[in-house]
Write a structure and sequence with these properties.
It holds the Pfam family Exosortase_EpsH. By secondary structure, the protein is of the alpha+beta class. The chain has 20 helices and 11 strands. It folds into 3 domains: about 180 residues, no CATH class; about 130 residues, no CATH class; about 160 residues, no CATH class. Strands 4, 5, 6, 7, 8, 9, 10 and 11 form an 8-stranded antiparallel sheet that branches.
C-alpha cells in the first residue's frame, strides 16, 4: 500500500528529531550553495578522474555507517550547540582562504568541514560523538594526493632498480629513468601508484574501524594498507621492465595495461584482507558505539550544556553564510594594476643571446598578464634561460605554483628527472628530454615583500593580501640552464644569480614596482 512521504516521516522519525533534521537539511543546503563551485569541481574529479573514482562511494559508505547507528541515535535527543557555530565559522574561513587564494584543496576541505561543523551545531556534541567516525570519513570527499606524486615516483624508481638488479638485469638509474638493455624506462606520474595508494587509504580506514576494536591492530592494518600498495606498484613496474627484456617494450606495456592495472591491485586488496582476516576482532553487527559512555561522559555533558535552539542555530548559520559570501565576492575582485609592458633588464657581465636551446623549452604560466622568456650568455660559454611571469592575482585558473605550471609542462618532451641541488630561496629540479638533454630549472616566487621558493608560502601571502583587500601582483621567476657539453648548469645559474644582485628588487623592477 502506498504511503505518503509525510506519513512515513511521522511514523519513522521521533518528534524530538523532526525539527532538528529539517534545520540540518536547510543548513547543509545553504552551505553547499555557498561553496557550490567547490562541490561541482569535486564531483567532476570524482566522476572524470580515475584517481578519485572511488570517492563516489564515500557518501554511500558514510550513509551506511550512520544507518548502523540508527538504534543508538533513536535513544539520543539532539540539542543545538553554539560552539559548533564557531567550528563552522572556522571552516568557512578556511574555505574563504582557499577561494581567494586559488587553493582548491583548502576551499574544498573548508566546504566539507562546514557540513561537519553544522551537524555539531544543530544536533549537538552527543550526536557528534555517536557519529564521530562517519563524520570523520567525510574527509575522503576531498580529492587529495597529487602532491605525493614526485615522492612516490622517486620511491618507486629506487625500489624498481633494486628489484631489477636482483633479477639479474643490468640497469642504470638516473632520477626516475631506468636504462636497461631492453630500453629506457620512465617511472612516470601515472606509474607513481598514487591512484591505488589513495584508494587503499580510504579502504584501509574503513576496514580498520569496522573490523578491529584494538587500536594496535588498527594501526598495524593501516600501516600495511599504506606500505603494501607502494611495494606492489614497484613490483608492477619491475614486472613491466622484466617482461620487456624478452618480449619488447610494446608487449610489456600492453600486458601492463591488461593485467597490472586494477586486476593486479584487486588481488593485492584480497591478499591484504585475507592476511588480516584472522585478527578481525569486531562483530559486524556491533559497529555502533555504546550509549552508556556517551551519556555518562562528564566532558560531553559539559559540552552539551552550551546549548541554543536549533532554530537560532539555523539563523546564525545563515548569517555566517551570507557574510562569508559577501567577503568572498569582494575579495575575489581584488586585482593588482599591471604595467602595460615589461622587459628583461640588463645584467652586468651578461648579454642577451639569440641562441636557441637544443630542445624547445617554454614554461607554462596560465592566466599571467605578462610572460617573458629570454636567454643570456656570458664570456666562457655559460648560458642561462630566464622566464618571468607577472600575475594580477592568484586564483583558480591563474596559480603560479599549481600543478602543471612553471618549468615542467605536461605533454611536452620534457620529463621530471630528479630534485636539483639545494639553492637558497628557490626550488630546483632536473628535467630530461629525448633521453639525453638535461636541464636544471630554479624557480622562485614574489608577492609583495615575500620572496620564496615555497608554493605554500606563496599561496598564504596571496590569501592574506586578498582577504585584507590589498592589491599585490605575483611573479614567477625561473632561471634555467642545460647541463651538457661540459657546461655545469648549477654553476651557470649561480653565476647569473650573483650578477642579478638582490633578487626581490630585480623582480620588482621588472614589475614596475621600483
Amino acid at each position: 500500500m502506498f504511503r505518503a512521504p509525510a506519513a512515513i516521516w511521522r511514523s519513522h522519525i521521533s518528534p524530538v528529531w523532526r525539527a532538528p533534521l529539517i534545520h540540518l537539511g536547510l543548513a547543509w543546503a545553504m552551505l553547499m550553495a555557498l561553496a557550490g563551485h567547490d562541490w561541482a569541481v569535486m564531483f567532476d574529479k570524482w566522476w572524470n578522474v580515475s584517481t578519485y573514482n572511488h570517492v563516489l562511494f564515500v557518501p554511500f559508505i558514510a550513509g551506511w555507517l550512520v544507518w548502523t547507528r540508527r538504534d543508538l541515535l533513536a535513544r539520543l535527543a539532539p540539542a543545538a550547540w553554539w560552539p559548533g557555530l564557531v567550528l563552522v565559522a572556522g571552516a568557512l574561513m578556511l574555505w574563504l582562504l582557499g577561494t581567494v587564494g586559488g587553493v582548491n584543496t583548502a576551499s574544498q576541505l573548508g566546504a566539507v568541514m562546514a557540513l561537519q561543523g553544522a551537524l555539531l551545531a544543530v544536533l549537538g556534541p552527543r550526536i557528534g560523538a555517536a557519529l564521530l567516525f562517519p563524520l570523520a570519513y567525510l574527509f575522503f570527499l576531498v580529492p587529495f594526493g597529487d602532491e605525493l606524486v614526485p615522492a612516490l615516483q622517486t620511491i618507486t624508481a629506487k625500489l624498481v632498480i633494486v628489484l631489477t638488479h636482483w633479477s639479474g638485469i643490468p640497469a642504470v638509474i638516473d632520477g626516475v629513468f631506468i636504462e636497461t638493455p631492453g630500453g629506457l624506462f620512465e617511472v612516470a606520474e601515472a606509474c607513481s601508484g598514487v591512484k591505488f595508494l589513495i584508494a587503499m587509504a580510504a579502504l584501509g580506514t574503513l576496514v580498520a574501524n569496522v573490523c578491529f576494536k584494538s587500536l594496535r591492530r588498527r594501526a598495524a592494518f593501516m600501516a600495511a594498507a599504506i606500505i603494501l600498495p607502494i611495494i606492489a606498484n614497484s613490483i608492477r613496474a619491475w614486472g613491466t621492465i622484466y617482461i620487456a627484456q624478452s618480449q619488447g617494450i610494446e608487449f610489456a606495456a600492453g600486458f601492463d595495461h591488461i593485467f597490472y592495472g586494477w586486476i593486479f591491485f584487486a588481488l593485492v586488496v584480497l591478499a591484504l584482507l585475507a592476511g588480516a582476516w584472522r585478527w578481525f576482532d569486531r562483530d559486524p553487527d556491533d559497529l555502533a558505539p555504546s550509549i552508556e559512555p556517551i551519556m555518562a561522559s562528564p566532558r560531553l555533558g559539559w559540552l552539551a550544556s552550551h546549548s541554543i535552539t536549533s532554530r537560532r542555530a539555523l539563523v546564525i548559520l545563515g548569517a555566517l553564510a551570507a557574510g562569508f559570501y559577501a567577503w568572498s565576492a569582494t575579495a575575489s575582485r581584488i586585482e593588482a594594476q599591471l604595467p602595460v609592458s615589461i622587459e628583461l633588464p640588463a645584467v652586468a657581465g651578461w648579454q642577451r643571446s639569440a641562441d636557441t636551446p637544443a630542445i624547445a623549452w617554454s614554461p607554462r604560466a596560465t592566466g599571467a598578464g605578462h610572460r617573458l622568456l629570454g636567454r643570456y650568455s656570458a664570456n666562457g660559454g655559460a648560458t642561462v634561460d630566464v622566464f618571468v611571469a607577472l600575475y594580477a592575482a592568484q586564483d583558480d585558473g591563474r596559480e603560479a605554483s599549481a600543478a602543471g605550471e612553471g618549468a615542467l609542462v605536461p605533454g611536452t618532451q620534457w620529463r621530471w628527472l630528479d630534485t636539483g641541488p639545494v639553492i637558497a630561496g628557490a626550488n630546483s629540479d632536473y628535467l630530461l628530454a629525448d633521453g639525453h638533454v638535461k636541464r636544471l630549472a630554479r624557480t622562485s616566487y614574489r608577492s609583495g615583500n615575500v620572496l620564496t621558493d615555497s608554493a605554500v608560502r606563496l599561496k598564504l601571502a596571496a590569501m592574506v593580501d586578498r582577504m585584507m583587500l590589498r592589491r599585490q601582483p605575483t611573479m614567477m621567476l625561473i632561471l634555467s640552464a642545460e647541463d651538457q657539453g661540459g657546461a655545469d648548469a648549477a654553476a651557470s645559474i649561480a653565476k647569473f644569480r650573483q650578477a642579478m644582485g638582490d633578487e626581490g628588487e630585480w623582480m620588482d623592477r621588472i614589475a614596475g614596482l621600483r
